[in-house]
Write a structure and sequence with these properties.
The structure is a homotetramer. By secondary structure, chain A is mainly β. Chain A has one helix spanning 60-69, and strands at 3-12, 17-20, 26-36, 39-40, 46-47, 50-59, 75-89, 92-106, 119-121. The first copy, chain A, has a domain at 6-39 and 46-106: Nucleic acid-binding proteins (OB fold (Dihydrolipoamide Acetyltransferase, E2P)), CATH 2.40.50. Helix content of chain A is 7%, strand content 49%. In chain A, the strands form two sheets. A five-stranded mixed β-barrel of chain A has the order 1-3-6-8-7. In chain A, strands 4-5 form a two-stranded antiparallel sheet. Chain A is globular, with a radius of gyration of 19 Å. Chains in contact: A-B, A-C, A-D, B-C, B-D, C-D. At the B-C interface, strand 3, strand 4 and strand 6 of B face strand 3, strand 4 and strand 6 of C. Chain A binds two DNA strands through strand 1 and strand 3. Chains A, B, C, D: Residues 111-147 are annotated as: Disordered. Chains A, B, C, D: It comes from Paludibacter jiangxiensis.
DNA sequence: TTTT
DNA sequence: TTTT
């Protein structure tokens, strides 16, 4: 009964920090900037450009891809969900909102991503494969459906 | 290097048609309506309400869920991708655009969906599981309102 | 060069708080919950259900609509953007991430929203009107099911 | 009570065709390709790469921007809605599904778009302006809200 | 008909 | 802290 989805296109603020946890599970973090253009209202008021910084978190395969290919300045498409974590500092409870990514796309001209195609996701196979587990994909090809 | 995503909230036009293909792979089809309110332009012209019909296609587990729980009139959230198929009729090539769903959500009051939660997806586990890490989520549980 | 978009479907945690600022500009705030189902990993670990709370902010017309029709428990579709504000408490800088909504949809059975259709947006006319062309839409009306 | 949203990132297949209708209203059309990577299933079957072609339609200001800056090969982010039109050819009714865009973003390195920032939308001002009609934006700056 |  |  619920949907929690974030879609961002922006630029990476610094190289990812990657950690390896138990069982060698990788986690990566980096900031992503989205910038809204400034404009002038109909009443002549200047609204300045505004940059928003987003904390991106990636797990496992996506984190490993980020470690290899994401750099400060990279332009990315990110799809994920919002998650707020709490932590303590000096006895004060604080909250951080992060975007936990499921899909990461490299945009713009191929840099050195080494991917045939810029798409990566955290499903076991490619995103397309989310609809074709266990049985061969040829069986569920929509192209030969007789209707 | 690409994204193909559709997000719909609408009402089902008729009960799903479900077929079982080779290896018992299920496919379901049904029409989903989205309706844009009519309005009046600043120049006083009436733009009527407009209903758009979308061909929804679901595979495997999602198709089986649709068979059981989706009915004419159901309100659904659908996330998927656009796909255009071609077919011939009377020697004329024709095209049909469909939304192949990855995520289907039952909205509104719980009917008899039998799901604890109305969300279903075509990944092997739940959507959350796409990032599943074996570590407990309890430490950063946001179950208590942080504001 | 950037995109900052959030899409949520969830339930309102408490009645909106609405303030009127200078020039009678309305702002509304309320928490929205999204819940991810719990599941069991392939290695047998139980991942519990997880509720995420989102701070929704609405301005002007949307805030006034929220004041009238949004209640604790309402099921809503929200589309907006992420925005992080900073503020100080006890000399400590703190951050809050909010979703500033452009589109709010009432889901589920019609309560008493008083709208012909549950959609509301902050554009001057309806969302459809963003592309409003003064020509009639009747020629390409898709009101009859094309399949 | 409904949502009809499409989000695409892809490459333009040919230069836009632009027409000017009554009252000088511009309409632009072009094909946009999204490509899903091929992959191998767990049972060893090769699923080939698949390209999907989308018919993009833009009105007014967006059409004029497309006329100036969109070229064959351009990488774009498109946000819009699905719309199916019917037309007749040789006495046979046929249907075409199009994406009517509200938002168009130029991705990748700046070519010669001439925009300070690649974002364009069909609202009267910039997307940000959708939340600030009539009154100055300074009044509704979230930054000085005392809550 | 694009892109990798 | 990015990008334009």
């Amino acid at each position: 009964m619920s949907v929690n989805k974030v879609i961002l296109v922006g630029n990476v603020g610094k190289d990812p920090e990657v950690k390896y946890l138990d069982r060698n599970v990788a986690v990566a973090n980096f900031p992503l900037a989205t910038t809204e253009r400034g404009y002038k209202t109909s009443t002549g008021i200047e609204v300045p450009e505004r940059t928003e910084w987003h904390n991106i978190v990636l797990w496992r395969g996506l984190a490993e891809t980020a470690e290899k290919y994401v750099k400060k300045g990279s332009q990315l498409y990110i799809e994920g969900k919002l998650q707020t974590r709490s932590w303590e500092k000096d006895g004060v409870k604080r909250y951080t909102t992060e975007i936990v990514a499921d899909v990461m796309q490299f945009l713009g001209k191929r840099a050195d991503s080494g991917q045939d195609n810029g798409t990566v996701s955290n499903s076991q196979e490619t995103p397309a494969a989310q609809n074709s587990f266990e049985a061969p994909a040829s069986d569920d090809s929509a192209d030969d459906l007789p209707f």
